[in-house]
């Protein structure tokens, strides 16, 4: 049923008095009534907000829906993100065989489930070293600084063939990308610096290739002239930034969620079957949904969603948080309701990685990283505890990716 009232401002703020892991209550209200409603975003435009699990999947796989940021009516998250994506556009925000399918195919072979599983021992070693350093340091420790950021940053840099880059600088520049306070000039400058970094690495690897992703892009794509240095640099930038920022936020937020759900934590800590950790990761991805500002799309033809007609040129925001808490998809009577964390719940059909042809390319790497970190952290530090009240944790309500700026822990 079409909602006829004024379009509420989006994104809605989280309610500090409620659980910090829950999406805003207004999103659940929309999901449980209309399912779809117009909202007003930062630039005054009024895209459609889609909140139900089945509708989100339908929209993300519909041929009338485009991910191309150059289409009129695309609902950008902010002026800064619009500027950054315009400067460093990749297949992630494009459509079609040439702009999306072929570049994605070039990278997809690097991120197969089999290849990512083969990295499990390497990820285990990186995780153990990070925990060793944390245990050798002072208490309380910031889990974000000591574990959540180092593990995925080291892994993506190693995969790219850039182990010696300044990790802290890459992390700082990525923060500029996702901060609500960033200006278009800020994000453009950050993009330029990272593009220069990736471009320089491609030049080096074209002359002296190694066994890494950037070397293969240089020798198989750049040297034969199949793709330009600029295009490959943009692809590398996407992998470098997205490859650590999302996993880092999931590690910090997932740790906080498990520490406040000790019965669920115990199931992971005490399990000998690796399938327990694998299932727990899927449930944490569903429950937390760190892409809390929604996936953005635009209609290139008229289509109908939940009884509402979306016209050509109208923007669409897919609200993954309420979609991942939709009882129609995640309440089967055998498990806790979808607003609760239940790591025994079959949750692989969550939307945390999106859906359809633009589904997250690096999801298999993220899965293995999270499985290793969560199964290792609580086994090695069984007395791990928050060193601050949950209400004092500085959560990333000011970022397009949800997480924690800092998470103080002790043991």
From TrEMBL:
It holds the Pfam family p450. CDD domains: CYP105-like. One of its GO terms (molecular function) is iron ion binding. Keywords: Heme, Iron, Metal-binding, Monooxygenase, Oxidoreductase. InterPro entries: Cyt_P450, Cyt_P450_B, Cyt_P450_CS, Cyt_P450_sf. PANTHER family: CYTOCHROME P450 YJIB-RELATED (PTHR46696:SF1), P450, PUTATIVE (EUROFUNG)-RELATED (PTHR46696). Belongs to the cytochrome P450 family. This is Cytochrome P450. It comes from Nocardioides agri.
